[in-house]
Design brief:
It is a single chain. The chain is an alpha/beta fold. The radius of gyration is 15 Å and the shape is globular. It has a seven-stranded mixed β-sheet with strand order 1-7-6-5-2-3-4, with helices on both faces. Helix 3 packs parallel to helix 5. Helices cover 39% and strands 28% of the residues.
Length: 168
């Protein structure tokens, strides 16, 4: 399927995690979805992630279903996702699939005026932060991404995500 082909494109160069304190900088041409960093990172870790946080403006249905599958396969212990309100207005069915899927698993979701693109994969002693310009969708344009293994950077992003998840 197309999603698997896109993930293979990412695996062509993303072959190992950055060491603690290091970062990998990527400029991509739309051959893979930004979300694909999650399953590839999990494969490179070789163990389940204790937690995953995601922030995006919008998300595609295949990637929502992949997230829920990774949770059901116990490759992720817990997850929380924030999106933009645009996602809920424009992609109502997909947003409802995400909201209902996370709620059924006792997990959190919140939409607000959000355009930040961050993915956190916590699997101590690795603290993977993925920051970039792309959404959790197919991105047929030039996008930049930074993959870091840094506990302080992870904690910074986790703190504001927790703040936004708790906001009324």
């Amino acid at each position: 399927n197309l999603s698997a082909l896109r993930q293979e494109a990412l695996e062509d160069f993303y072959r190992q995690l950055p060491a603690a304190g290091e970062s990998l900088h990527v400029v991509s041409n739309g051959r893979f979805d930004y979300f694909h960093f999650l399953p590839v990172t999990l494969r490179l870790l070789g163990r389940p992630a204790a937690e995953v946080y995601g922030s995006t403006w919008t998300m595609s249905r295949p990637n929502v279903l992949d997230l829920l599958r990774l949770l059901d396969e116990k490759r992720i212990g817990t997850a929380a996702i924030v999106t933009g309100t645009y996602f809920k207005r424009r992609e109502t069915a997909v947003a409802n699939t995400l909201l209902e899927g996370l709620a059924a698993r006792g997990l959190r979701y919140r939409a607000f005026a959000n355009h930040a693109k961050v993915l956190l994969v916590g699997a101590p002693p690795d603290w993977i932060t993925i920051e970039g310009s792309a959404n959790f969708t197919a991105n047929p344009r030039l996008e930049q991404t930074v993959v870091s293994n840094d506990a302080d950077l992870y904690a910074f992003h986790r703190a504001w995500l927790e703040e936004m998840l708790g906001a009324a």
